[in-house]
Amino acid sequence: MKDYLVRGMxxxxxxKAVAIRSTQMVQRAVQIHGTTxxxxxxxxxxxxxxxxxxxxxxxENGSMTLQIRGGGPIxxxxxxSDPEGNVRGCVTNPNMPLVEKYPGKLDVGATVGTDGTLxxxxxxxxxxxxxxxxxxxSGEIGDDVTAxxxxxxxTPTACALGVLVDVDQSVKVAGGYLLQxxxxxxxxxxxxxEQGIQRSGAVTAMLxxxxxxxDILGQVCGDLGIVFMETQEVSYKxxxxxxxxxxxxxxxxxxxxxxxxxxxxTFPVECQFCDEKYLFTPEDIARLLKRI
Length: 292
Prior knowledge:
Distance between the termini: 48 Å
CATH topology of the largest domain: Hsp33 domain
Structural class: alpha+beta
CATH superfamily of the largest domain: Hsp33 domain
Shape: globular
Largest sheet: 5 strands, antiparallel
CATH class of the largest domain: Alpha Beta
Strand content: 25-35%
CATH architecture of the largest domain: 3-Layer(bab) Sandwich
């Protein structure tokens, strides 16, 4: 079953909503980076949030980068989304030990830490990117995304994320939703939304029951009703290529490339976001030196 996200708006026009099933996306990240359970849960939540945030941006050829540095054992989490919501990412420490709140419940907050920041970099195809950064609230990522929108973009937001890791370390389900109030939303709309969020419970539980992103938004928005406006398939997708890697090698400069050439061995370059490895022979390096 392919991952996808759906965008909509409540019938009264006061709430923008997006929900996603990201199970295969997160599973692909596990395959590439070899993450253990806690890293899978934290990284998967960040990828899920990045996909929704990137899709909301809607700038052709733009991108959205989410970076989380919390001082926890996972280190830095970096995720990049394209305008459709396809994502790629990496973590500093994918092989961290098991940390649980209680038996069977992974402690994502302790994995990420709270001594740091959540930073969003929006490439809107303008002269300079927009950069917003806020202190981490809980390290649970959903709360931190909520705080980011409230503090940095002055948009009242509710973000819920979930990744359920199975006993064999695979991803059983993953997904989330993001709700944003538009200006002028009356108190009764806010009250109904809060009630819907409390009534719905955890994202993973809804996904485990077989609920779709449409079902989840319908459940959360309740009698506010919702109109669906767009459905978009999403995946873990890296844009690396030999051409891009070649340009990166050239940017190292003549001196460093000469040292690589003098070693006389094939030089491997592995993409930090995916499992693609590019091999450059001494002859390849010599040709790059000629280009410089």
